[in-house]
C-alpha cells in the first residue's frame, strides 16, 4: 500500500516577477502565474492524479493557485484546510527588498546564506514595517515571526504534517499541498531526509505538481518524487536558483 502526496508551489507571483523577497507578504499571482496554476491542474487531470483534499497556506498566491488548479482538474469541490504553518518562510527585514540589490549590497556569499542556508535567518523585520504581519487579523493569537531560517520552517511545519496531513494520507486520500518555495523545501527535506547541504541545492519551480508515493512509514518510494512535467520543472528550478544574479 502506498499513499499519494502532491506538492504544488504557487504560480508566478507579482514579486517573483519583479524579483523581490516576499515571505509572508500577501502578493497576488500575475497573469502568467494564473496560467501556470491552471496548467498545473491540467497536468493533474491528464495524469489522473486527482486530489481528495487540499491543504494551503493563508496566502492568496497559494490559495488561488489551488483553486485554479483544482478547477482545471474538475476537483474544485474537495475539502480544504488552511494553516499559517504552510506559509512561505518569513524573510524578515528582506521582505519587499529587490534580490539583485541585496546581492550587490551584501555580496554573493551573504546573499546565499540568507536565501539557502539551513540555520541562519535574515535580519529581523521591524514589526511596524509596512511589510510586517504583526497586525494582520489572519494571525490573531498566533506567533508572527520576525524572520525565519529554513530550520524554523521545518519546526513549524512538522507538527502540522504529523497531526493534520499524515492522517489524511493514511486514510487513503490523495493529498494536495499548495504552498511556497521554502515551505515545500521544508517538506521535501523532511520526506527525503536531505542534509542541510543537499536541501540548499533544491529549488522548487512554480506551478508544476510534484508527486510523491509514500510507504507505510511516510518515506518516498522514489526519492525526490516525480514532477508531472520534468523538463519544465528543471528549467523552472534553474530559474529560481538564478534569481538575483541578473544585474539591473
Ligand atoms: O521571496 C521569497 O519568499 C522566496 C520565494 O519566492 O524567495 P527565495 O526563492 O529567494 O527563497
From TrEMBL:
Any GO molecular function: phosphoglycerate mutase activity
Active site residues of this protein: 10, 88
EC number: 5.4.2.11
Positions with a binding annotation for substrate: 9-16, 22-23, 61, 88-91, 99, 115-116, 181-182
Catalytic activity, as annotated: (2R)-2-phosphoglycerate = (2R)-3-phosphoglycerate
Gene3D superfamilies reported in the protein's UniProt record: Phosphoglycerate mutase-like (3.40.50.1240)
Site (Transition state stabilizer): residue numbering on this chain: 180
Highest rank taxon of the organism: Bacteria
InterPro entries: His_Pase_superF_clade-1, His_PPase_superfam, PG/BPGM_mutase_AS, Phosphogly_mut1
CDD domains: HP_PGM_like
Keywords associated with the record: Gluconeogenesis, Glycolysis, Isomerase
Family: Belongs to the phosphoglycerate mutase family. BPG-dependent PGAM subfamily.
Biological role stated in the UniProt entry: Catalyzes the interconversion of 2-phosphoglycerate and 3-phosphoglycerate.
Protein name from the UniProt record: 2,3-bisphosphoglycerate-dependent phosphoglycerate mutase
Lineage: Bacteria, Bacillati, Actinomycetota, Actinomycetes, Bifidobacteriales
Gene: gpmA
Amino acid at each position: 500500500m502506498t499513499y499519494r502526496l502532491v506538492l504544488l508551489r504557487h504560480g508566478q507571483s507579482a514579486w517573483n516577477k519583479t524579483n523581490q523577497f516576499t515571505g509572508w507578504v500577501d502578493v497576488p499571482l500575475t497573469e502568467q502565474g494564473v496560467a501556470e496554476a491552471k496548467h498545473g491542474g491540467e497536468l493533474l487531470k491528464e495524469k489522473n492524479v486527482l486530489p481528495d483534499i487540499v491543504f494551503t497556506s493563508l496566502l492568496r498566491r497559494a490559495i488561488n493557485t489551488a483553486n485554479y488548479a483544482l478547477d482545471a482538474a474538475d476537483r474544485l469541490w474537495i475539502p480544504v484546510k488552511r494553516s499559517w504553518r504552510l506559509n512561505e518562510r518569513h524573510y524578515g527585514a528582506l521582505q519587499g527588498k529587490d534580490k539583485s540589490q541585496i546581492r550587490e549590497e551584501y555580496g554573493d556569499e551573504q546573499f546565499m546564506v540568507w536565501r539557502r542556508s539551513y540555520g541562519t535567518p535574515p535580519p529581523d523585520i521591524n514589526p511596524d514595517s509596512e511589510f510586517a504581519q504583526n497586525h494582520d487579523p489572519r494571525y490573531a493569537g498566533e506567533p508572527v515571526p520576525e524572520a525565519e531560517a529554513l530550520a524554523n520552517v521545518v519546526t513549524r511545519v512538522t507538527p502540522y504534517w504529523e497531526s493534520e496531513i499524515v492522517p489524511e494520507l493514511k486514510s487513503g486520500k490523495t493529498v494536495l499541498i499548495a504552498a511556497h518555495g521554502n515551505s515545500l523545501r521544508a517538506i521535501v527535506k523532511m520526506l527525503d531526509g536531505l542534509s542541510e547541504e543537499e536541501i540548499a541545492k533544491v529549488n522548487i519551480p512554480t506551478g508544476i505538481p510534484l508527486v510523491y508515493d509514500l510507504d507505510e512509514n511516510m518515506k518516498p518510494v522514489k526519492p525526490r518524487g516525480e514532477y508531472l512535467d520534468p523538463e519544465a520543472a528543471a528549467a523552472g528550478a534553474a530559474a529560481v536558483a538564478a534569481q538575483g544574479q541578473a544585474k539591473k
